[in-house]
Amino acid sequence: MGKRLAGIFWSLLFLAVPVLGVATFAIAPAYDHWLPKDVSEHGASIDSLFYFILALTGVVFVVTEVLLFWFMWKYDESKRQGEATYIQGSHTLEVVWTIIPAATLLFLAIYQMNAWADVKMRRPAMSPTVEVVARQFEWRLRYPGRDGTLGTADDLFLVNDLHLPIDEDVLVQLKSMDVLHSFFLPNVRIKQDAVPGMKIPVWFKAREAGSYDIVCAELCGWGHYKMKGRVTFETRAEFDAWLERKYAEQGATQPPPEAADVAAAE
Amino acid sequence: MNTSFATLRSTLLLAVVVAAVGCGKTPPASFRLNMVQATKTAAPESGMEKPWAAWASERQGQVATILEAMYGTPDEPVALAETGLDLAKLQLAAGPVRSDIVGRKNGLYREHCVHCHGISGDGMGPTAAFLNPYPRDYRPGKYKFKGTWRDARPAREDLTRVLHEGVPGSSMPSFALLPPAQVDALVEYVRYLSMRGETELALYTYAEQELGVDDTLPTTKEFLVDEILTPIVEKWQGAEDARIPIASVPTNVDFTKPGDDPANRESVARGRVLFHGDGGCVKCHGVTALGDGQANDYDDWNKVIVEWSKEVSGGLGSAQDDAGRSAWLHAAADVIEGDALRPRTIPPRNLRLGLYRGGRRPVDLYRRLYTGINGAPMPGVGPSGPGGKGSVADAEIWHIVNYIRSLPYEFDGELGADRPMVAKDRF
Questions:
Q1: What domains, with CATH codes, occur in chain B?
Q2: What is the CATH number of domain A130-252?
Q3: Domain spans of chain A?
Q4: What is the percent of chain B where pLDDT is above 90?
Q5: B361: nearest CA partner in chain A
Q6: Which tens digit of pLDDT belongs to each residue from B71-108?
């Protein structure tokens, strides 16, 4: 009797894997543990690829796990009568389970090409909107200034607080000052490694105003976990006004008046 | 009951026990003494009956006791009313990283600063040895990037600005996105660590100069507060009023235009003359401004170690017969090896990189030029105190600022597309 109980226990334990797995996915969105809000133009195509692959692998996962349970249940040692049968394997079966996944992978590779090209190959013909230089453990930013050219005397230098206009293409020139980092904007579905010695272009179009995280997605050292910046998407007019304000701050020839002094003057 | 169940149960039980008991308890954090100064100021004196090591550790014990009474521990800071420090802010910054009842983040110093600046603010955290330049040691109370007179302490807003902007070119990152209340708490904690470090230094100096062999440090309020603490606190509280005056910008300077613009040409030319002449900049920054002038100097923090280790290694050979002296020098050699970072020279800045540690605003560069950089070999061209006279007139400093700001881009205007390619362009 003990052996039968153990058999039931282990089969049910393995059945719990697909049940809990599916349940986790089912309730995750309700607890806000799902994909972060997408504000980009290309993000939908990436999300739909994600959902497609999730569905595909989800079905395979459930079928495999249920089969595993069923085999454990049916061929339980305690229910065994007589010797096990020895089989040589099935050539046909092997061909089938090789060709089906191969065809699926090939399909995926072709099916995703357009989304990949949009994000990594079809670079808009424009000069960089901003240069982002990753550094242990911060994001140094450089805007081209009024002349629109990086590397000239009117560049605007900032740190961690990235602002970008919405509803137009932006081109980020990504560099690293020290080690590998990864420029990750979860809300625009952008993730690109920053490699020392390389200038890497990253482009996207945001459709909605708001402030979101910039995080480092490549272990870069002790402070990796807190290498966090903020990206603020705003309308072109707001963006230009912000640039002007920062520009004035960078050109300051007097320290900014202190809060106390300002209050006294008013 | 079968074996599978038994195994499973015992495994679970073990997991629960390990989780509950843990793998050992960490002792509470404690401040470390400034061993360099503690040893340096404890030269053996004649008439010492105890062995030097026992005598020195007794005196260090007295200092540690006094400091703990005045400043508390890293987990439970004390703010004497005389220091003017805000205990609520210190408590937010001190202690282990945790959230309090209302969900407010505590232990900010240990979350953001300690791994470089160390638990005692000695600039010797676990990652410090790998950095160049080394992290700031708060204990002498010297800070580089500020808007006050050279020898004055930094104002709160100066420290806030460094936290906000970081120090580009060093390993100090920006904390621009931390909530202002957290930055405030960290600034207060840095001031606290500085005052504590300065108090410790003052105690060693007093012991060295005033105490006989068998004397102990007085523990009266008159001595500790009036004689030791008050002068230190006065400096910090005076910082807010010790800002340097900033001359108005001459009419032929337009910082919104590049250096080669007609609006600036005259001023940049004047700045160039001052850079090579009265300003004395070329001595270290070099004729080309690449920072290739004199480059074998040390900053004040490193200089202490360099000079003392020379003294110690010089003395070691001749101290064989004197047991006390020999013990002291050997202890000193151990401290230099184990309690100090290996000294590093401070190279003059390459002004063509466009990387400005203390900030790139014209007002930042003006301040660096006016007072020089406290703790570094960089001298100021302005007066050394209120009412004094500098080597360059106040308003003229703006021309040097203008010239320096034009240096990273000097080739753009004159040579255009034919300019030589520099490393900066490649990546």
A1: 35-241 (no CATH), 262-297+346-426 (1.10.760.10)
A2: 2.60.40.420
A3: 2-77+94-119, 130-252
A4: 70
A5: A250
A6: 999 999 999 999 999 999 999 999 999 988 888 889 99
Distance of CA B197 to the CA centre of its chain: 11
Q: CB distance A197–B249 less than 8 Å? A: no
Q: Which amino acid is it at A260? A: A
Task: Tally C-beta pairs within 8 A across A and B.
Answer: 85
8 Å CB contact of B361 and A252: yes
* Chain A residues with CB-CB distance to B412 below 8 A: 152-153
pLDDT tens-place string over residues A32-67: 899 999 999 999 999 999 999 999 999 999 999 999
- Taking CB atoms and an 8 Å cutoff, what residues of chain B touch A140? 168
- CB half-sphere exposure, A137, CA atoms < 13 A: 19
Burial B139-167 (b: 16+ CB within 10 A, else e): bbbbbbbbbbbbebbbbbbbbbbbbbbbb
Query: Residue B137: how many CB atoms within 10 A of its CB?
Result: 28
Residue with token string 């979860």: A186
C-alpha–C-alpha distance, residues B397 and B393, integer Å: 7
What SS3 state is found at B26?
coil
Q: Give the helix/strand (H/E) hosting A153.
A: none
User: Facing residues of A194 across strands?
Assistant: A181
The residues near B280 (Cβ < 8 Å, ≥ 6 apart) are B379, B381, B391
Could you tell me the pTM of the whole model? 0.87
- Whether the complex's predicted ipTM surpasses the cut of 0.90: no
Output the 3-class SS for B332-343. HHHHHHHCCCCC
